[in-house]
UniProtKB/TrEMBL annotation:
Taxonomic path: Bacteria, Pseudomonadati, Pseudomonadota, Gammaproteobacteria, Oceanospirillales
Protein's recorded name: Ferredoxin
UniProt KW keywords: 4Fe-4S, Electron transport, Iron, Iron-sulfur, Metal-binding, Repeat, Transport
Domain 4Fe-4S ferredoxin-type residues, every copy: 1-29, 31-64
GO molecular function: 4 iron, 4 sulfur cluster binding; metal ion binding
Presence of keyword Transmembrane: no
Gene3D superfamilies hit by this protein: 3.30.70.20
InterPro entries: 4Fe4S_Fe-S-bd, 4Fe4S_Fe_S_CS, YfhL-like
Species in which this protein is naturally found: Aestuariirhabdus litorea
Amino acid sequence: MALMITDECINCDVCEPECPNSAISPGEEIYEIDPNLCTECVGHYDEPQCVLVCPVDCIPKDPDHEETQEELQEKYNIITSA
């Protein structure tokens, strides 16, 4: 399952550089996560780095983009092979 950033985001800029897949970018009002690039850090780390550094805890799992660990690993494999 990809992650998402809620409207509680304070645009502190700490999550974007932590993403190993460059899935986080500035949106019109708050940062956004591209679900096609988000692997929840599978393949890179044991837990999502953006969630670890977020000071307001506004990065939950995105219920519109549910994926298994295997699907996240496959997405990681595709992203890193490009």
